[in-house]
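Our consortium's second objective concerns turning raw sequence data into structural hypotheses that experimental partners can test. To show how far this objective has progressed, the report includes one record in full. It was chosen at random from the queue rather than selected for favorable results. The single chain below, 180 residues long, was entered without modification.
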Amino acid sequence: MPQCEMCGAEQASLTTSKVEGAELELCSSCTDFGTEVREEPSSAGGSKYSTGSSSGGSSSSSSESSSGTSSSSGGSSSGSPRRNDMFDDMDEIATDYDDRIRNARESRDLSQEELADQLNEKASLIRKLERGDTLPTDDVKRKLEREFDLSLVEGKDVDADWETDDAGTMTLGDVVKRKD
């Protein structure tokens, strides 16, 4: 019997709903938290889904984004590959980017001001980067990587909390830690 992906309740039939950008298979009591996603007939070209509440020009952008996501228990059953979205091409900045920048600068015996001059950036930006107060822009990241021959990008590791052997049984309750 299928489980609701939000509360974990077993129901005979679930409804596909969009909750904060994610398509989930929800029971009747949880569907109030999102917008029902209806499948369009395959003869209609374009997107596979449309949301129940369409308002003017935003319907095309919501249907494009919903076709790029796949639900763990039904979104990928059609056999067609998932369409790439903008986040697939983005690199994730390493969590220790501030230490990498500081260590590389100190290994060359450069002050923050000297590094800023070499990169044609402000010294205050270098200070903020080394403190971890701000993330480097793509341009600054490229300059730093080229200058120090290092990588500020984190590897494509999968979070172990989200790995499962059975694609249909994981719910939010399996992952979320409650504050009791």
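The partners drew two points from this record. DSSP finds six helices and four strands in the chain. The first strand starts at residue 15 and ends at 19. Both points have been shared with the crystallography group to help prioritize constructs.
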